[in-house]
Amino acid sequence: MTRRRRPTARQVRLGAELRKLREAAGLKAREAAALLGADSVQMSQIESGIAGVSEARVRRLAAHYSCADRELVDALVAMATERARGWWESYRDDLPTAFLDLPELEHHARYRWDADFLHVPGLLQTEDYARALFAFVNPEFPESDVERWVEHRMKRRIIIERPDPVPYEALIHEAALRIRVGTRADARAQLARIVELSEADHVTVRVLPFELDGFGGAGSAMVYAGGPVPALDTMVRDSPNGPVFIDAAAQLARYRALFRRVEAMSLEPARSRDFIHQLTKEL
Question: What's the CA gap between 282 and 276, in Å, rounded?
Answer without folding.
Answer: 10
